[in-house]
Write a structure and sequence with these properties.
By secondary structure, the protein is of the alpha/beta class. It has helices at 14-25, 66-76, 80-87, 100-112, 143-152, 198-210, 231-235, 287-294, 319-322, 347-366, 378-388, 412-432, and strands at residues 6-10, 29-34, 57-60, 89-90, 95-98, 117-121, 132-135, 157-163, 166-168, 178-179, 191-196, 262-268, 275-278, 305-307, 310-316, 335-337. Bound molecules: flavin-adenine dinucleotide (FAD).
Length: 437
């Protein structure tokens, strides 16, 4: 066993919380540092761990989507993030969405009560000098710690990311909206739909594309991650672009059988249905402009905004240059990075990277070989992308089937089923051999 039988984890977000849990539940002591409530990024609002800063969705639930498979692999490894998500799930059609406060509370309580975890509140301003550590301060890291990581990683890369506004349910005019999930998939009351006719859509598009955006130093449209593009940026691409994107009307026929020209969907944020997220409406308009333009949406004329859309810088290291496939810094053995800062993209992927780094850290402490997740698994494929991308323009990436080794099959659905079965068999084999299994 190594001299210092304790692992340091910096940042109790999605990645850091998962990492701390994995280490602690396998019998190793953890010191978990979190800067909240002393300091918060512009996107973090609560004091809890594993705060979901934007959408409350952990995306597709079905294992025949790559993120669904990744989640199932994490369940096989007893992921705390997946335990919390399954326990605090809210209806959202084919997606796994959660009550964000209950989700964070579940994780915070579990970690704070764990005998192997010592929680330390306050900002960390340097990297640990030695020992085994997992650094997971998220994409909004700043100040001295950001500088230290920048030096270690020979500079950060960055792009911009945006969050969608949330409105209160009681401020929605229920006479103008209707419940429906696209193509009737999932529960009938997961989504509220605000239908527009041609004229309403054109006035709305005009207002959206000419509204004033907030100042953001260094912002360029082409540096926005496609999956989280501000709605006004997308709208500027063409008058019909939104009708093929977040305002797509297909599969959302109105209760009287009419097909709307365009639809804005609102997704329930909490179990009680008090809050609704405007789906796909990440925005960087000035707050007053958000109020003015979004209140043109039928049903939202008197909308109260529980949160306005915001946009932030998003930092990540050059994974292929800096990290190996265990998320360990090549130039600092025993120092792992985890979460979005490694170049994975998304809540689930961030937690998955924390999980894998933690399993390796546990093996380091115990002097055992690290687990080898091959690219037949979603866990291994993600780590393989971050550490092995061969192109010149490394960018954060969600897990996709394109990253996972494929198999020959008669049809696409057969192929996904076979890949999923093979991946889960490998993960179960690895899980059975892990310390504290
Ligand atoms: C504005 C925004 C919106 C996003 N929206 C989505 C979305 O809708 N869906 C999605 O899947 N992904 C989204 N992401 C991407 C990503 O999934 C999240 O950022 C995710 O939370 C990343 O997990 P993480 O663990 O890397 O970082 P975080 O969850 O941000 O956790 C980092 C933690 O470290 C703490 N910390 C930071 N610095 C220090 C320090 N110096 N000392 C001590 N503690 C520190 C922070 O307070 C925080 O608790 C979004 C990102 C941003 C920035």
């Amino acid at each position: 066993m190594a001299a210092e039988n304790r692992v340091t984890v910096i940042g109790a977000g999605l990645a850091g919380s998962e990492a701390a849990w994995q280490i602690a539940r396998r019998g190793i002591k953890v010191r978990l540092f979190e800067q909240k409530p002393e300091k918060r990024s512009p996107a973090h609002k609560s004091d809890g761990f594993a705060e979901l800063v934007c959408s409350n969705s952990l995306r597709a639930a079905d294992i025949h989507s790559a993120v669904g498979l990744l989640k199932q692999e994490m369940r096989e490894l007893d992921s705390l993030v997946m335990r919390a998500a399954d326990a605090t799930r809210v209806p959202a059609g084919g997606a796994l969405a959660v009550d964000r406060e209950a989700f964070s509370a579940y994780i915070t309580e579990t970690l704070e009560q764990h005998e192997n975890i010592e929680g330390v509140r306050g900002e960390v301003t340097s990297l640990p000098d030695g020992g085994i550590a997992i650094v997971a301060p998220g994409p909004l890291v700043e100040g001295a710690l950001a500088q230290a990581i920048g030096e270690l990683a020979e500079g950060f890369l960055s792009f911009f990311d945006a969050a969608a506004p949330i409105v209160t349910a009681e401020s929605i005019d229920m006479d103008k909206v209707y419940f429906a999930s696209r193509y009737g998939k999932g529960g009938g009351d997961d989504y509220l739909n605000c239908p527009m006719d041609r004229e309403q859509y054109h006035s709305f598009w005009e207002a959206l594309t000419t509204a004033e955006t907030a100042e953001l130093h260094g912002f360029e449209d082409d540096k926005v991650f496609e999956g989280c593009m501000p709605v006004e940026t997308m709208a500027r691409r063409g008058v019909d672009t939104l009708r093929f994107g977040p305002m797509k009307p297909v599969g959302l026929t109105m209760p009287d059988g009419t097909k709307p020209y365009a639809v804005v969907q609102l997704r329930r944020e909490d179990k009680e249905g008090r809050l609704y997220n405007i789906v796909g409406f990440q925005t960087h308009l000035k707050f007053g402009e958000q109020r003015r333009v979004l209140r043109m949406i039928p049903g939202l004329e008197n909308a109260e905004f529980a949160r306005y859309g915001v946009m932030h810088k998003n930092a990540f290291v050059n994974g292929p240059k800096v990290l190996n496939r265990y998320y360990e810094c090549k130039n600092r053995p025993g120092l792992y990075l985890a979460g979005q800062i490694t170049g994975v993209e998304g809540y689930v992927e961030s937690a998955a990277s924390g999980l894998l780094a933690a399993l390796c850290a546990v093996c380091d402490v115990l002097g055992q070989p690290r687990p080898d997740f091959s690219r037949d698994t979603a866990m291994g494929a993600l780590a393989g992308y971050v550490s092995g991308y061969a192109g010149a323009d490394f960018q954060p990436m969600n897990i996709t089937y394109g990253l996972i080794n494929t198999v020959k099959a008669k049809s696409k659905s057969d192929r996904k089923r076979m890949v999923a079965e093979r991946a889960l068999a490998e993960v179960r084999r690895i899980a059975a051999g892990l310390p504290g299994a």
